[in-house]
Specification:
The protein is mainly α and about 170 residues long. It is built from 9 helices and no strands.
Length: about 170
């Protein structure tokens, strides 16, 4: 956030922290509205929509980074409401996989979001690894195809397996 926004707007919110929390909350609401995950959605295409959102709105990922640095493991503002948004997405993803919501499905959602957001969160790393001449590479298409392959029939059972399903159990 620009310094003038914080200084000029903080009076209406009480202090800079409350202003920051309000900005993050509004950005998260915008993300939830712009990139829903609905029953029957293709999870790989969801990754593409998340990628598009973060490409077009790089400030949100930076806000997440700042929020993480500030709160670390502490309770976030509106944490329960925010968690509820993700629990809904986990339930939909599980339904799309034909299974129940579980920590493995939650980890899958986290991985899909990370796959979509990371290239836009760290553009310098993307540039260092891929280079600046990306005419031959459509990174969005690559990320979607990678997600689709990871979620293909051979990988999906591992996402849904429980500890009791593993050979060590």
């Amino acid at each position: 956030m620009d310094r003038w926004i914080v200084q000029g707007g903080s009076a209406a919110f009480g202090d800079e922290q409350k202003l920051f929390d309000a900005v993050v909350g509004r950005a998260l609401d915008e993300l939830a509205e712009a990139v829903p995950l609905k029953a029957g959605d293709d999870p790989a295409e969801y990754v593409g929509r998340v990628y598009d959102f973060h490409r077009d709105n790089p400030v949100l990922v930076r806000l997440f980074f700042w929020e993480g640095l500030h709160y670390r493991d502490g309770v976030l503002p509106n944490e329960e409401r925010r968690r509820g948004h993700y629990e809904e997405k986990i339930a939909v993803l599980a339904e799309n996989f034909g299974t129940e919501a579980s920590p493995k499905i939650a980890a899958c959602l986290l991985s899909l979001i990370g796959l979509a957001a990371w290239p836009n969160a760290v553009p310098q790393l993307t540039r260092l690894i891929i280079g600046t001449d990306t005419e031959e590479l459509d990174l969005r298409s690559h990320v979607v195809a990678f997600a689709r392959q990871a979620l293909s029939g051979t990988a999906a059972p591992a996402l849904m397996a429980t500890p009791a399903d593993s050979p060590e159990a």
